[in-house]
UniProtKB/TrEMBL annotation:
InterPro entries: RNApol_su_b/EpuA. Keywords: DNA-directed RNA polymerase, Membrane, Transcription, Transmembrane, Transmembrane helix. Residues 1-25 are annotated as: Disordered. One of its GO terms (cellular component) is DNA-directed RNA polymerase complex. Residues 1-11 have a biased composition (Polar residues). Residues 16-25 have a biased composition (Basic and acidic residues). This is DNA-directed RNA polymerase subunit beta.
Length: 92
């Protein structure tokens, strides 16, 4: 087969009135505008993780300082957590 015959055999044989119906159908549809993201997904995820970290820090500070008897900033020190882990593991 030559290239000319191949190209003719692959094209669908659509009558002219079908083509007109299709173009009329597409011209009746409203034009849709593509939406774009104001913030990319990676930035949204980063913001969520930062907010989650801050919420955990504030929650620990309120639990240790306000509900408990310690100073709120002591809840963020490694020595406090080491003491808690020692109590849990039975070293103290």
């Amino acid at each position: 087969m030559t290239n000319d015959l191949k190209s003719n055999s692959l094209k669908p044989n659509v009558p002219q009135e079908e083509k007109e119906k299709r173009t009329a159908r597409y011209s009746e549809r409203p034009i849709r505008f593509h939406s774009f993201r104001l913030f990319p997904i990676w930035l949204r995820l980063l913001i969520v993780f930062i907010l989650l970290f801050l919420a955990i820090c504030f929650g620990v500070m309120i639990g240790y300082g306000v509900i408990g008897d310690g100073k709120p900033l002591d809840a963020l020190k490694w020595g406090t957590w080491q003491h808690i882990l020692d109590i849990i593991n039975g070293k103290e």
